[in-house]
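Side project, low priority. Logging it here so it doesn't get lost.
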Amino acid sequence: MMKTLRFKPLLWVLMSLMVFGLTACSDDDDDTTPTGVTYPAGSLISAKATTVPTTDATVDALWADVEGISMTTTVAPYDFVVDDHDIWWDDYEGMTIDFSMKSVYTDDDIYFLCTWSDDEDSKTRQAWYYNSNEGNVEDDNGDIIPAKWLQMGKKYPDEFGNPPAYEDKITFFWDITMDNFENTGCATLCHGRYMATNGADQRADIWHWKRDRTGPVFQIDDKWLNDDENGRHGDEGTGAYSSNTHDLVTTSHGTISAPYYWIPGATDYHWITQADIDAGVAKEIVDMNVDGDWVDEDGTVLLKAEFGFTSNKVIPSLMGIKPGTGSRGDISAWHNWANGTWTLKIKRARDTGADDDVQFVTAGVPYLFSVGIMNSAAIAHATPGGYAGTAYQLILSE
């Protein structure tokens, strides 16, 4: 599979003029490197680094001299109703998020420094809690919904009306062999309920940073996209996380859904690591007593009254967090949230040798990408250009 985009020099310059709506440029409209090479305005120019960035979320001094790009992303209005719910959850529509991005590269690696606006570091993702239903919420038939253990909603409020709870995320879509990506960016991949390309010979590289699932191990979830329904696939290797959910058979209650593990005494925790499990810090939930309380392997009773929706003792939906392996785990990412801003520093080899990755092997040619930002949302994402979409060019300076 081809590792770089398929544009000849004259063709990609003409394409750039169409993508960004540019007219003939004066010197003031161009991005120019110190060596005098001129690139189309609006491009993200990756500068050759003389100092290697630190492998943490620190904005080290070298970034001050690097030009970047900035944009305002928007959650587009979109109506696709499933089970009487708008799957993008209406409250997100119209949300705007300011985003900026810089890049440098070395002989072996490429780095990105990204920042975006966000009022809160969102980590509560579909946590398990107990709803006592003291408000006597009714279902569609007018019957009182029984009190129960359940997970917080993913896309829309749960059956008791409590709002969904999800982690912060950001996704980068990179063109490998896409049609029309240069005109609409990731909008060409959006099919309402799912993401997919538009032909069997088309492929995109997806970098998906997830606050709870990959953030704890300082990685990005590396995936690729084809034309299957919901065409996202993990790269070769293993992912960084598993779902903390299983079916558990009890004598008094039959088969019930429950978390695998919890950590006794822990509060405000949002994932359970594989190290927690291996060390015996996390305890397996094995039963439910006659009062409806879960019981763990040591006989400890999880008193349901202590696990309400607003409690700091809710149980994470994620377990087994550990570094991803192989191509799926080949992107490092260090994050920090402070004063209403996310900072994310990314590092990847310029050439991974994997056909499900975009390869940054050639200076001076465009690598097309787009961005989607999710503010405590499973699906609703803010994109440049909203629903219309926008593609941006990354160019390694020569």
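Brief comment: The helical segments are 9-20, 181-184, 274-278.
Revisit when time allows.
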